[in-house]
C-alpha cells in the first residue's frame, strides 16, 4: 500500500467514524425510546439507499478523463475539507460550541417522547428519524469514499475503510448501549479536514494542469502546511475580542 493509499484509508476511516458516532446517537435515541425494530429498519433502508448511490455514481466518476476527474475530485474534497476544517477551527478557538453527544442524545430522546404514543407494530417516527439520520450522516461519507476511491481507482479500499469504521462504532455502541460521548470528535474532524483539504488542493491543482515538485511526495509538505495554517488561524481567532459561541452542528 502506497503512502497516498494509506492517507486515503485513514481519511475515510476517520470521516466515517465521526459520522457513524453521530448517526448512532440518533438511532439509539429512537430505538430506546420508541421501537428498535422500526429504527433498525430505517437504518437498513438508509444503508441500501447509500449503497445504490455509490453503485450508481462510482462508474460515472471513473469514466471521466483523468484530468477532469482530478479537477472534479479536488474541488469536491476541498468543499468537504474546508467545511470540516472551519468547524474544528471555530470550536478550538471558542467561537463555536463543541458537539456533545450526551446533549444530542437527550434532545433526540425528548423529541421522540414528545412525538406521541407509538403503535404496537411498525413505528413510523422511529423509522423516519433513523432513516433520515443515517442517510444524511452517510451521504457526505459516501461522496468522500467515491471521490477518494475514484481518483486512485481504489473505491474498494475506501469502502473497506468505511466499513471497518462503521463496524467498530456499531460494536462499541452496542456494547456501551449509550452515545459515545468520549470520542474526540473535534480532533477527528480537524484531522479529516486537514487531510481532505490537502488532497483536494493536490488533486485539484493537478487536474488544472499544475505539476507538483516530487509528485505524490509533495503531500508530505502540503499536509503539515495546511495543519500549521489552521493552527495559526486558531491562535489568531483566540486573540480576538471575546464573542458568544454559536451552536454546535
What brief labels describe this structure?
single chain; 249 residues; mainly alpha; 8 helices; 78% helix; globular
What is the fold's blueprint, element by element?
Elements: H1 3-33, H2 36-62, H3 66-92, H4 101-114, H5 124-152, H6 155-176, H7 185-207, H8 219-238
Structural commentary:
This protein is mostly helical. It has one domain. Helices cover 78% and strands 0% of the residues. The chain contains eight helices and no strands. The radius of gyration is 19 Å and the shape is globular. The mean pLDDT is 86.
Sum up the overall morphology in one term.
globular
DSSP summary, beta strand count = 0
How is the main sheet built?
none
Write down the Rg.
19 Å
Oligomer: single chain
Poorly predicted runs are: none
**Strand residue percentage:** under 5%
Instruction: Give the H and E element order.
Output: HHHHHHHH
How many domains? 1
The share of residues in helices is: over 70%
Structural class: mainly alpha
What's the pLDDT, averaged over the residues?
Answer: 86
Instruction: Please count the helical segments.
Output: 8
